[in-house]
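User: tokens in, sequence out, please.
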């Protein structure tokens, strides 16, 4: 599971380092291309999640995982160049610290975090809806939303670690669990980056 998560994160780092500039030039040259990417991103991410979670084959689940990792990498190629590298490095360090800390808590107190599953999904959906409404009506997507999402995704890391320990220890379940943890880490990183960028 850890190796699968690390693979996804490493792929994203390599994509940002090697292709961020041409990706930005391509997708940001017109509104239609950018909207096309956003639609493609959600389609690939949803398809990847469904494939990974529905399949009992580790190879098929890993294919689904890559359908998430690659569009996320392109998304990061569009986001990260807008921030100073010092801020990006700090966000990466903070994300790593929070991730390791919450993984430790999830391993040490699995029952506590497993009991939070329904609360976390409701909190995530409600916060997302409120943020979208706030942006559309008031034009506000401030640090408050970022902080709430940081808290939610931090708790989700512990929850998904605890949940992964409850599954049968198979390769397919390891890949499936890696999908959830990878998405938690990426969302946590993006929100921390947003907070640090606004403070800067």
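Assistant: Sequence out:
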């Amino acid at each position: 599971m850890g190796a699968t998560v690390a693979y996804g994160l490493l792929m994203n780092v390599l994509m940002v380092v090697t292709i961020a500039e041409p990706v930005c030039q391509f997708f940001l040259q017109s509104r239609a291309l950018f909207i096309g990417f956003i639609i493609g991103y959600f389609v690939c991410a949803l398809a990847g999640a469904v494939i990974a979670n529905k399949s009992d084959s580790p190879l098929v689940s890993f294919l689904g995982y890559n359908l998430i990792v690659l569009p996320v990498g392109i998304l990061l190629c569009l986001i990260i160049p807008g921030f100073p590298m010092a801020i990006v490095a700090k966000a990466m360090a903070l994300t790593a610290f929070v991730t390791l800390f919450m993984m430790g808590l999830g391993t040490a107190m699995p029952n506590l975090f497993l009991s939070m599953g329904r609360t976390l999904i409701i909190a995530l959906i409600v916060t997302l809806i409120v943020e979208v409404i706030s942006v559309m009506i008031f034009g506000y997507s401030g640090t408050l939303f970022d902080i709430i999402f940081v808290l939610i995704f931090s708790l989700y890391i512990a929850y998904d670690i605890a949940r992964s320990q409850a599954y049968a220890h198979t390769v397919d379940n390891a890949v499936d669990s890696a999908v959830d943890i990878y998405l938690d880490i990426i969302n946590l990183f993006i929100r921390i980056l947003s907070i640090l960028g606004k403070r800067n």
